[in-house]
Amino acid sequence: MAGLKALYQNSRIKYKLFALIAAVMLTVGILIAAVQQVAFEVYDEEIYEQSAKALNLTSYSIENELKKMEQLFDLFSAPEWAGLANYKKMFFHDTKYWKSLKVTFLYVIGGVPLRLLFALLIAMLLNTASRAIGIYRTMFYLPSIIGGSVAVSIMWRNLFGDEGVVNLLLGALGLDAVRWFGSPLAALWMLIFLSVWQFGSSMLIFLAGLKNIPISYYEAANVDGANVFSRFFRITLPLLSPVILFNAIMQTIGAFMTFVPAYIISKGEGGPLDGTLLYSLYLFRQGFVFSNMGYASAMAWVMLIIIAVLFKTSKFWVHYESKGDS
């Protein structure tokens, strides 16, 4: 334990480690830029046109959405009044809707905590005074900029192919290859790994929060003999909880809105066996593949309610310094 602590305190070794990780991430970024140039040759233009349509769902006004969720609207014929028929179908007759909701919650529960944990760990390592910290922050933030692009999704699909780099590494370690596209759970974890890799934005927010915690708190804890874990759980974590809330809400909203990776990796089908059928992908398929725009609008409002509940309940599990222990 003492050896590990001495290794961590050796700033030269620590920053070399940072430089190595940053160099790897920069290399990946360059590869992605190269893939971006040939992406349109790999996938049909139809994929990009449909993706653009899906991303433009938010261009509709609130009034139009309120009308459409109560209508049988297929984009081609005149709307028909449906009342709550869309919700009745959604909650009582559409088994694939519940499947998409389950897959999305598994994606959120598995991806968001891992992403926040990794972002917090890197932020704590970067919370030091150094002239090179700005470079490292930029390198670590790079995946958040390019992570949602079509090129990254194509690259990710190739990395996790049957003869991809990931399976080659597993084979080199003496482990069996994983059929990432043959198992619903493995395919979902492939999407979760892509989500965790895009930790840069959360890391910067955590880093800003850590710098706002007075150093005098840690100095007093050291005088009292508090160890590293006590300082983290009794000082850092409580004072950082509003920042954790903000990051959790933003990442949860982003996770519910995830569309491009699931669409590209599953080729728009949500397979295998609906294992990657995220909520937004199913919403897109209902609206633009099956032309059930009224049903898709009703699904969008259910998503809005789920996200609103997260905001409403936040006061019960977040510490605000101005409100004591509430």
UniProtKB/TrEMBL annotation:
It is found in: Cell membrane. InterPro entries: ABC_transporter_permease, MetI-like, MetI-like_sf. SUPFAM superfamilies: MetI-like. It comes from the Bacteria. Residues 101-314 form the ABC transmembrane type-1 domain. CDD domains: TM_PBP2. It is a multi-pass membrane protein. The keyword Glycoprotein does not apply. Keywords: Cell membrane, Membrane, Transmembrane, Transmembrane helix, Transport. The keyword Transmembrane applies. The chain crosses the membrane at residues 17-39, 105-126, 138-156, 186-210, 239-266, 286-311. PROSITE patterns: ABC_TM1. PANTHER family: ABC TRANSPORTER PERMEASE PROTEIN, ABC TRANSPORTER PERMEASE PROTEIN YESP-RELATED. Belongs to the binding-protein-dependent transport system permease family. This is Carbohydrate ABC transporter permease.
